[in-house]
């Protein structure tokens, strides 16, 4: 017994000892030492960091940019898409010469799905990785927890999928590349009105225990009322529900021509299916939670025709998006989703802002003072204009995104009722 | 100092989780398996979040007074303790697994209520909770004293009349009542003490994580805190404390191990992604198989004590 305990404790202690990272030296803005083997920063190393991008000759220590998103927990479905987007961005921009010839190093940290995990990942990014900027976290609620940490440390942070109200207001260093739900969602209602101008009664249903769905539904309800439509009923459900007979019956009871569903893939998809099975034939608008191919197996054939607003379209014109779509489809064998595009954009904004900063003041000048570099980078991020896969974007003084183009897609199911695709109608 | 900065958040989180493990241990001292701690933790957090954003809200740009946080912790502790008594009186008519189920139901009820009340911010929760410190490390100034207080309190409790009564009830409730111990009030007291500690911790945690919502203190958390107690050891207060500290640290240190630099790339990716949680799970499983009584048992403590003062061997021999 004693021996076992000794062995177990030694194993744990060994783990702990092995885990102490090398103390980061103050002011090492390159910061590569904490993440890479601290070998000589030669061309050989930058090649290793750049991965497939051997074509460009990159020199100097890689500049660490942290991507802190959910790789585990139930939020990982979204976070994984963001990881793919960020990794593509690292490869792509290093292939294009990085920051004036210096490579970037995208360091991925797992925030898991909770608030404490987000703060832990941010602390690691800020202190151990010594990143110049952070892209993340995945959820708005996580940003409310980790955002103030980055703000106090003075590290520029870009939220890739944090769409709730109040995010850029957390502080000067907090911005986002994800357009707020209040701007995106009404586009779907407009398309529905184009398709059926005779809409009078509208029914709204939302997942009451989901932060995103419950803030999204407020926007939808406002959009409905602003357009002079009759908001006939508002139904609530839980993301864990499986039976929606009560909600579907109540909705059909008010004879709507349009139903708006804000939920996640499993519950929202089931509600749509049960609505259709009970005989509803009008239009259906889905929220961003249904904006994933994961909804296809849930509602099958009945998914057909769901209208969903998008912040990104693979069909966006421009050479950058074409390259992004090609890189994504060759690796993943499907069209890139919005989350990947937004994470890609987050990294791009940092790369271009760093380049602008380098042109203006010279990164070498700022190198000694990491805090100063972060502050200067934050100013450069907010001042710049970017031509991204989301279309042209810029930021307000507060850090809110100015995005010009929004899109609306409609689900089109194949005859087998299992596979389908998002067809862009706007 | 840089290391302390990097791990400041983690250290405070470790202390908070050790406190929550202690709050689970308190009812367990009297043999009551209660999983209600996360409920009271969430309740205390909401009290602090609402008070600090609505009642004591500081003017723009001014730091929040530390004294107010302490006041919130007191209010949350008292309110949670009172709620604990209210819940305990009916719930403690149950025992064992049925009590565990009832307390899980209590946690769920609190969660659904907070999802529906406008004052708790519904699903989005309350954000922008004012900060008394410039960095996360500052919270140690509050967490460490609270932790020491709780540890000293529980350590003393194990040695005074009330604590002995708890232990007697745990060992055999019928025999305890035959000896003249009023089992009902003692069980309620143990439950309420745990609730008060969880509520106080919640108030601190609300400031610490900057935001508070219905995702805090859910059923998942109940199971995690139970794991702290079971892996650490449930027969002495040192067990939950060690369990809370170690089990919080391990996943994060595994994350840190990905950055040592000497590891091959695939292992690095494995550790910084989901792999660290797999290793964590394996450690938990190994821990329970090899130490069914938990890592820290009274016998171990007795042996350690004996080892230190070898001449007087007879000291702790009285253990059964």
How would you characterize this protein structure?
- The complex is a heterodimer of chains A (426) and B (320).
- In chain A, a hairpin with a 2-residue loop joins strand 11 (385-388) and strand 12 (391-395).
- Chain A has a seven-stranded mixed sheet with strand order 7-6-8-9-10-14-15, sandwiched between helices. Chain A has a five-stranded parallel sheet with strand order 2-1-3-4-5, sandwiched between helices. A three-stranded antiparallel sheet of chain A has the order 11-12-13.
- The longest helix of chain A has 23 residues, at 338-360.
- Chain A has 16 helices and 15 strands.
- In chain A, helix 4 packs parallel to helix 14 (338-360), helix 5 (115-128) runs parallel beside helix 6 (140-153) and helix 14 (338-360) crosses helix 16 (370-383).
- Chain A is of the alpha/beta class.
- Chain A folds into two domains: 59-179 and 319-395, 3-Layer(aba) Sandwich (Rossmann fold), CATH 3.40.50; 183-310 and 407-424, 3-Layer(aba) Sandwich (Rossmann fold), CATH 3.40.50.
- Chain A has helices at 2-19, 32-35, 43-50, 76-95, 115-128, 140-153, 181-184, 186-195, 211-226, 245-253, 265-277, 296-299, 319-332, 338-360, 363-366, 370-383, and strands at 63-69, 104-110, 133-135, 157-159, 174-176, 201-207, 230-237, 258-262, 283-286, 307-310, 385-388, 391-395, 401-403, 407-413, 420-424.
- Chain B is mainly alpha-helical and 320 residues long.
- Chain B has a domain at 2-218.
- In chain B, 71% of the residues lie in helices and 0% in strands.
- Chain B contains twelve helices and no strands.
- Chain B has helices spanning 2-29, 37-55, 66-91, 96-116, 140-157, 161-171, 173-178, 183-208, 219-232, 238-257, 265-290, 298-308.
- In chain B, helix 1 (2-29) packs parallel to helix 5.
- The longest helix of chain B has 28 residues, at 2-29.
- Chain B is globular.
- The N and C termini of chain B lie far apart (46 Å).
- Mean pLDDT of chain B is 87; it is low at 312-320.
- Classes of the chains: A alpha/beta (426), B mainly alpha (320).
- Chains A and B meet through helix 1, strand 2, helix 5, helix 6 and helix 9 of A and helix 1, helix 4, helix 10 and helix 11 of B.
